[in-house]
């Protein structure tokens, strides 16, 4: 059996993380997302794999060639992002017999992939979600067989089983891909071809993903949610491979990789993962559900809570990073603070593709793109996104998203005449109120 991984998307909803890396290379517990899929496929004996690539393709190709030489992997470039149906179609000549189709922004258990592999005939995987379904395809099914997929419904639909983005098909799918037309979004949808199959009387089985078998990395806060869920179930005991100096306090399960140095006075509460060649302390505070990427430096009086720090992040003094995602090679000036709680304690919202969306989280800090630099005493408000390569000058209070390659300067100037006029206004208002 072969497998097709769809990994060409730009990941607009995940910006600024995807400014500098394709979705399959987003780290989860310090391991790229695609590693979980490739590892599962290898264990199941699926070694012939086709990957459709597009956005930042060279980074993905180089990573896979350097780390997965044991698999027979073919890369196909999708010139334009014309949808999942088009992505499958461009791989047609490399696929025959039964094959899997897996979306590249998923984290799947080996057990779930195995369920799909063992099914006979066309199969689609669904996953139950109790929350909003408007961003997903909804599976309408009966007696274990698919009746219809409704893409991103605008009105209420009773079914809470969404399309999980994991399929098993054979060459028949290409006949139906030839028959579909562009959707209202201007894309060729794989789900339209599947609906045509069902209309022609072809039986498509529906299997359901169990709890903790399927995770989607679709929006930035998904990374924080997945990190917490996986840490609860997979990190049970401490593994200390690095150096831990005297007077370091470690509570709960903590993984410290080779080359890491934890300096005196540091307090760590697990579950926490600390990557290779990381230095922490002295006098740092690392709180649960934190992942610190390889080569990062966390210094004196720095607190990190429930956050994901990617490779080579530097925060050397007097910084708080809470419920945030910090991409590679970010440097925080002293006193940089990520606020993670609104005054009214309501769910934090974030702008996704121009639309304000609730994260479902009461605590959510900033999403900081790669190579960002902040000056001293910078404050980042809950839910802001900082584009890659941007600089933020000292003293700035950032309450709006910042595009990539932007310099933000915060400056307030007071002139004597302005102050005099303001004092006159205050005095007048006070007299009126009295």
What does this entry show, briefly?
The chain is built from 8 helices and 40 strands. With 434 residues, the protein is α/β, with parallel strands linked by helices. The chain has an 8-stranded parallel beta sheet.
Describe this structure in words.
By secondary structure, this protein is α/β, with parallel strands linked by helices. It has two domains: 2-218, Spore Coat Polysaccharide Biosynthesis Protein SpsA, Chain A; 222-408, Hexapeptide repeat proteins (UDP N-Acetylglucosamine Acyltransferase, domain 1). The strands form ten sheets. It has an eight-stranded parallel beta sheet with strand order 14-17-20-23-26-29-34-37. A hairpin with a 2-residue loop joins β9 and β10.
Side by side, the strands of the main sheet go 14-17-20-23-26-29-34-37
**How is the quaternary structure best described?**
single chain
Helix fraction, binned, reads 10-25%
Q: What CATH architecture label of the largest domain applies? A: Alpha-Beta Complex
Distance between the termini: 84 Å
How many domains make up the coordinates? 2
Catalogue the unreliable spans.
none
Number of helices: 8
Largest sheet: 8 strands, parallel
Query: What is the 3D shape?
Result: globular
CATH first level of the largest domain: Alpha Beta
Which structural class matches the secondary elements? alpha/beta
Keywords:
UDP N-Acetylglucosamine Acyltransferase, domain 1; single chain; eight-stranded parallel β-sheet; Spore Coat Polysaccharide Biosynthesis Protein SpsA, Chain A; 2 domains; seven-stranded mixed β-sheet
